[in-house]
Design goal:
Length: 218
Amino acid sequence: MATHGVFITGGTGYIGSRLLPELLKRGHEVRALVRRGSEHKLPRGCQAIFGNALDHATYDASVPPSDTFVQLVGVAHPSPAKKAQFRSVDFASGRAGITAAGAAGVKHFVYMSVAHPSPMMKDYIQARVECEELIRTTGLNATVLRPWYVLGPGHRWPYMLLPFYWLMERIPSKREQALRLGLVTLPQMIRTLVNAVENPATGVRIVEVPHIRNASVG
């Protein structure tokens, strides 16, 4: 297995804090963007890079020599009430990461997007869709992951919806939407991210819920 130099934004968050140790365990060189005072949240072996995820100019020079950029920054517990934050955090950090990766000549960009289209959370989805469009415009080789909801510690209430999903997946007219907007687990998400890092894309590769459930990138 080839090892990679990985630069991560959002490394101290819900998913990032689980991804970092796994990448380190597998021998990758990992650096994570953090604000000063948060470096203690990083696992041993991960290099702290100080900067502001919303302003690429604060960390542009620190992206090289990483060959892989993983963008995980986003508003915690998204809800319709956080419309303004989807623009000021999700879109702004995504745009900053894409700009920094493009300027650094990163070979592979891994972006945490969201399943779409959907009849709900349109502002959240729109911010992520615009970042996907920026990735294509920039010409980056990229893997775009599109989960809907990630089940894990503190994120367990949707388990009550599993019987509903089971039923919808068996109705032909509802099956596609039920699979695309299905639930995935935190371990499935971490394994898929690791696979994305270790199997770089050529062009833009989209990874939907069914592949995330199988912890694969297609």
